[in-house]
Design goal:
With 91 residues, the chain is mainly alpha-helical. The protein is 87% helix and 0% strand.
Amino acid sequence: MANHFSSLKRVRITERRTAVNKVRKSRMRNAIRLMRRALDKKDAETAGKLLPATFSMVDRAAKWGVIKVNTANRYKARLHARVKALQTSAA
């Protein structure tokens, strides 16, 4: 266990930041899960409406450092490709 004042402070800060990051990552995963469920149900309209909100959540997670930027881009690219394929097949 840390003994120095600054080390103890860093431990407290790390615990708080870990809790915040956990919430942010959970929210992002929930948004992606909603999108995937809409895609699995082949609901193009709902998926199209959820797309901007999901992208926003993924971008914010990347900005905050919860996930890496390339990971965020990969999530967005795969979701967008599935939405696009669903919309073209529905049309």
